[in-house]
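Q: Sequence in, structure out?
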Amino acid sequence: MAASLRVLTMNVLGPANPDWARRSALVGETLRRLDADVVALQEVPVGDGTVEDLLGPGWSVTPFSRAADDGVGGALATRAPHRVLEEVDQRCTERARDFAWCATLVVEVDTAVGRTLVAHHKPSWQFGHEYEREQQALAAARVVERLAGDADHAVVLGDLDATPDAASLQFLRGRRSLEGTSVCFQDAWETVHPGDPGHTFDARNPLVRAGEVATAVSRRIDHVLVRAGVHGPTLQVTACARVLDEPVGDVWASDHCGVVADLAVPGHPPGSWAS
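A: Exactly. Output:
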């Protein structure tokens, strides 16, 4: 059996929002059951033990260095100990400074598939801030490319607040260049579910309908992306699914659903023919 890596991202809609006690219990139960190797969480209380309570014991956890005034931010957790390589402050314009934990956290971790670079990317969320998201994607990609030479693989994941056709995602997915730079990260959902919109922020969800952006259309804005080398992604996406995209009993876990992906070492390396 090929070596594999399970990665997961989820925006958990923190405790300032309704029904946190039941929602957080459901999120924690689900995260522990899915047993991922890498977990990126957004809109989660950091520094107070909440992340550790959700995941259970035995994790290496690094929160973003800045959080909102209520202590909510982003955190990256890995089963194996990780090494923090860099954190990019993504508050790249004056209007982007309104979002305290706008950042990209990059770590390196030794996994079953090899030395893996993981970037937890959280750009600007505001609908009209695609210019900022472009610049933030460019800054994140440049850091990953600079650091990726010492790693076997690289993965970008998070609540990217951009649909696959947005300029920032087109750039990350290798569909366009920005300022003389081009990269290519394969979209895990698209790989397994071509043509399926795979909405992760869905108007069916009553937390979306009751929330601050109730007029928005359903969108896929939470992503797992796998870095490609010259001949394609260095890891094969063998499975990708949404997490908590339906209520359990009468509880919706969040206004987002998560994304989990299984990544495996391919049968033969990209750039070679199978023997």
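DSSP finds six helices and 13 strands in the chain.
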